[in-house]
Amino acid sequence: MWGLNKKRSKIGKFIDEHGFTQEQLCKAANIGRNTASRICSDPEYMPSTNTIKKVMKAIREIEPNAKTEDFFDL
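That's the Helix-turn-helix protein sequence above. Prediction below.
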């Protein structure tokens, strides 16, 4: 089971529920491993606008109706 006993953000929970890894998120969104790790594990982390756009583009490949507000507190 993915994400067992890990502190996860909304993005982290989403990728866990859909069976994806942080490494796959890195490649799909073209972001670094450290950034992906923070996005997936730290619910208080607020990435740059450019990074949010990249991540949301990758997420919308899985869930076309996903909204930025569902994952980030803007």
